Amino acid sequence: MQFRQTVIYCGVRFQLATLIAPQAGSVCHLSDSGFHFPISGFDQMSKIRAIASLEYQGQVTEVLEFLKRTRSELRMLRMVHVYRDRLHVIDINGDAFEITNIGYPDADIVPILNNVNTAYKAELIHQETKDEYKQFKTGRRYCWAQDRVM
């Protein structure tokens, strides 16, 4: 026997299920994640809003200028989603900049990712993936005296 209850926690709807075993000693499992699972349609990453958009036309300097000019519209940067054909720079509030016509297969993606301090491996960025996009965190830090030669 199974009872369901819908609960809203931190703005996300969850469906709680309580399982009562029909016989003593029998085990029932709903999912691998336990009894809590989000209801479809309430995915947190679907709340990304593109504040500004730019179409890449082969000039990396144009994209870097766009990021520099519009950077004040976002809060602290949180992550980057790199698709095959576009790039999203996302802040902690879910607001984003979108740059179209450039993606992870392109060589010009490297200076753009470096500009927003993305933590990634440059030798692996151009490899294919079966996922919809590649996700990287921003806020990369450098070692003290990294630029000095010993």
Can you offer a commentary on this structure?
The chain is mainly beta. The protein folds into 2 domains: 41 residues, no CATH class; 93 residues, no CATH class. Helix content is 12%, strand content 32%. The chain contains 2 helices and 8 strands; from the N terminus they run ββββαβββαβ. Strands 4-7-6-5-8 form a 5-stranded mixed beta sheet, covered by helices on one side. It has a 3-stranded antiparallel beta sheet with strand order 1-2-3, with no helix packed on it. Strand 1 and strand 2 form a beta hairpin. About 19% of the residues have low confidence.
Q: How would you sum up the global shape?
A: globular
Distance between the termini: 70 Å
Major sheet attributes? 5 strands, mixed
Q: How are the strands ordered across the major sheet?
A: 4-7-6-5-8
SSE series = EEEEHEEEHE
Q: Tally the structural domains.
A: 2
Rg result: 21 Å
Identify low-pLDDT runs: 18-45
Structural category: mainly beta
* Number of DSSP helical runs: 2
Proportion of helical residues: 10-25%
The tally of strands reads 8
Give the SSE map.
Blueprint: E1 2-9, E2 12-19, E3 36-38, E4 49-55, H1 60-70, E5 77-82, E6 86-91, E7 95-100, H2 109-115, E8 134-137
Parallel strand pairs: 4-7
Antiparallel strand pairs: 1-2, 2-3, 5-6, 5-8, 6-7
Helix pairs in contact: 1-2
